Amino acid sequence: MRFQPILISALGALALSACSQQEEIAAAPPPPPPPGAVPGSIAADRDGDGIIDGYYTADGMYHPNYTPPPPPPPPAPTQVGERG
């Protein structure tokens, strides 16, 4: 029996096994807090819709996000006038 082909194939498999190891990939950093968030706070999704509703600060107080209402639409043009 010849051991040389078996020995060469075993050494080749051993050498190639070092290439098959995958590198560890670091986890992505958390997204930055939106404008107006308090540093060191924890985001809160109270209604479970996947959108951040507010923040809990370190003292346990809940602070809701406040978005100002949009401005009212401009008034409709009047039908009184030269061409109305």
Question: What is the mean pLDDT?
Answer: 75
Roughly how many Å is the radius of gyration? 33 Å
Total beta strand runs: 3
Oligomer: single chain
Can you summarize the main beta sheet? 3 strands, antiparallel
**Strand-and-helix sequence, N→C?**
HEEE
Query: Which percent range describes the beta-strand content?
Result: 5-15%
Helix percent band:
10-25%
Strand order of the largest sheet: 1-2-3
Uncertain segments are none
User: Can you tell me the overall shape?
Assistant: elongated
Biased composition (Pro residues): 28-37, 66-77
Signal peptide: 1-20
Keywords: Signal
Region (Disordered): 23-84
Write up what this structure looks like.
This protein is an alpha+beta fold. The protein has a domain at 38-68. Helix content is 17%, strand content 11%. It has a 3-stranded antiparallel beta sheet, with no helix packed on it. The longest helix has 14 residues, at 4-17. The model has no long low-confidence stretch (mean pLDDT 75).
What features would you highlight for this structure?
alpha+beta; three-stranded antiparallel beta sheet; 1 helix; 11% strand; signal; Lipoprotein
Q: TL;DR?
A:
The chain is of the alpha+beta class. It has one helix at 4-17; strands at 42-44, 54-56, 62-64.
